[in-house]
Amino acid sequence: MAWRKIEENIFKFLMVLATAVVVGSLALILITVLFKGLPALNLDMLTKTPQGGYYIGKGGGILNAILGSLVLGLGATFLAFLISMPLVIYLHLYLNTRSNRARLIRFILDLLWGIPSIVYGAVGFTLMVFLGLQSSLLAGIITVAMLIMPIMTRSMDEVFKLIPFELKETSFALGATRLETAVKVILRQALPGIVTAVLMAFGRGIGDAASVLFTAGFTDSLPYSLFKPVATLPLAIFFQLGTPFPEVRERGYAAAFVLTLIVLIISVVTRIFSARFSKNIIR
Amino acid sequence: MIDVQTHIRVKNLSVWYGKQQALNQINIRIPDKRITAIIGPSGCGKSTLLKSFNRLIELQEGVKITGHVLVDGEDINDPKVEVTHLRKKMGLLSQKPQVLPMSIYENVAYGLKIHGVNGKKNLDPTVEHYLQEANLWEEVKDRLHTPASKLSTGQQQRLCLARGLAVEPEVILGDEPTSALDPLSAECIEHRFLKLKEKYTIVLVTHILRQAKRLADYVVFLYLGNLIEHGPAEEFFKNPKDPKTRAYISGGFIEETTRKASG
After folding, report:
1. What does the pLDDT look like over B63-79, one tens digit per residue?
2. Which residues does chain B have within 8 Å of residue A166's beta carbon, measured at their own beta carbons?
C-alpha cells in the first residue's frame, strides 16, 4: 500500500513539474523581452520609421516593421483562410471522414506542416522569380500563406472532428443540402474553434522570419504597395540583435516585446468577439 | 383494418455495414396514417430500417444497400431522386434530442428557411403554430430568442418535434424518441403521437414493449436483421405466430426457441 502511494506521488510530482516548465517558459519569455526591451521602448519607436543610421543607434522607430508585419500577417492569414475553410468543409461534409481520400489529404497537410519555414522561403523565392515579382509584400503574403495554411487547416479539422455526427444528421434529415448544413449549422457550432485555428496560424505567420527573408525583403519605408518590399518585425529583431551595439540590441528586445504584444492583443480581442457570437453553440 | 394505402413499401431490402449484414431481405408495407412500431432487441436492425426510409443510412461508413424502398411508389435509391426532397417528406425524431446551435425560434425556422419560407411576417405565425403543435409554445413564448441548448431534455425533444413538423412532412420517423426522456416528457411525446397520427404516418422504433402496446396500430418485429413477424398490433400481441415473437413479447429467451426450432 505504501509503495503504491509513493508511486502515485512520484508521478504526480513529475506531471506538476512538466506543467511548471511550460508555465515557466512563458514567464521566462515575457520577462526576458520585457526587462531587456523596456528601457528602449518609447513612443518614437512605435510612431516613427527608421532615420538614417537607425541600426547603429541613431533616432527613429520601427513603425515600418510594425505596420509591415500587421499587413503581411493579416493578408497571409486571409489568403490561407480562403483555402483552409473550403478544404475543411470538403473533408467533413463531402468526404467520408475516414475515407482514403480524406486520409491522404490529412497526410499531405501533416507533411506540409512539418516542412521548415526556410524551405517555404526558398520555394516562395523561386515562385516569385518565376512570376517576375521582386521581393514584395505580395510575395511575402503568398509565401507566409503557404506556410500557415496546413496549420490552420489541420487545427480546424481537429475542431470539426469534435462536432457530433448527429448534428449533421439532424440538418440533413430536415432536407438541407451539404452546403446549407456546413454554412448554417456546422460553422456556427465550430466558430470558437475556427477562431482559435486562425489565431494560431496568424501567430505563426507574423512571427516567422525565415519565410519572409527573401520574399518580402526589408525596407525603411512604410508598406504602401503590394509590389514593393515590406519590413517585418522578425527581421527587424534579427537585424538589431545582430549588431555589436548594446543599445541597438536593446531595441531588438523592445521590438520582440511589441511583436509578442501584437499577437496577445489580437488573440484577446478575437476571443471576446467569438464569445459574443457563440452563445448558441451546444456544449 | 390495415388498408392498402401505403406511403412506404419495402421490397427485398438488405443492408450491409462493411461485411456485416444488418438487414436481410425485408419486405413490408407501412400503413398510412397509423403508428407502426418497429420492435426487437438491440442490434436487430431497427434503426437501420428506419434510416433507410430517408436515406440517412448513406452517411454511414462502408454501407451497402440492395433492394428497394418505395415512397409514394417511387424508388428512393434511384439516382434521379432528389434526396433533400425525400428527406423533407420525413420528419426525424432521434434518440437523443439534437437541437441546432441556434435560438429556439431559429431552430424551428431553420427548416422553413431552407425550403424557401422567408421574412418575419411568414415565419412568425408558422413557428408559433408548430411550437403549439408540439405542445411547447406556452413554455417558451417569452424566450424564443434564447439558445435552444438551454432547454431541458424533454423540452428539447418537443422542440425537435416542432422543427420536424414545420417542414410539413408526410411521415414522422421516431428512433426511440423517448428513451432519453424522463417519464413525464416521454408521456407528453406519446400523447402527441396519438394526436399526430390523424395527419401523419408515424414509424416508431422502440425497445419498450409497453410503449409499442400503448401506441402501435401495426407492429414489425425484427430479430438479427430478419423480419420475423409483422401485423396489426392487436393480433400481433394476442396471437403471435412465430415462437421467437412469443418468446420476445413474453420476456423469454429468444435464443432458446431458436435452438429448439433448429434442433
Report:
1. 899 999 998 888 998 88
2. 94, 96, 98
Strand ranges, E, within A61-164 = none
Considering the domain architecture, whether residues A54 and A34 belong to the same structural domain is answered as: no
Which residues in chain A are closer than 8 Å to B149, comparing Cβ atoms? 280-283
The pLDDT value recorded for residue B259 is: 56
Domain identity same for A23 and A75: no
Q: For residue B6, give the 3-state DSSP assignment.
A: strand
Domain extent for A36: 2-40
Count how many Cα atoms sit within 13 Å of the Cα of residue A227 in the half-sphere of its side chain. Answer: 4
> What are the chain B neighbours of A169 within 8 Å (beta carbons)?
56, 59, 92, 94, 98
Shared domain for A190 and A253, answered yes or no, is: yes
Q: A282 in a domain, yes or no?
A: no
Q: Are residues A185 and A216 in the same domain?
A: yes
Q: What number of C-beta contacts closer than 8 Å exist between A and B? A: 80
Q: So what's the pLDDT on residue A182?
A: 95
pLDDT tens profile B192-243: 999 999 999 999 999 888 999 999 999 999 999 999 999 999 999 998 888 8
B114-145 pLDDT, tens digit each = 998 888 999 999 999 999 988 899 999 999 99
Are A27 and A53 members of one domain? no
Q: Do A280 and B103 touch (CB under 8 A)?
A: yes
Q: A199 and A80 share a domain?
A: yes
A98 inside 8 A of chain B by CB: yes
Backbone angles phi, psi at A241, to 5 degrees: -70, -20
Domain co-membership, A52 together with A102: yes
Q: How far apart are the first and last CA of chain B?
A: 37
The tally of domains found in chain A comes to 2
Mean pLDDT on A222-240: 92
Among residues A57, A58, A63, the alpha carbon closest in space to that of A44 is found at: A63
Q: Which amino acid is at A220?
A: D
Residue A189 has a pLDDT of 92
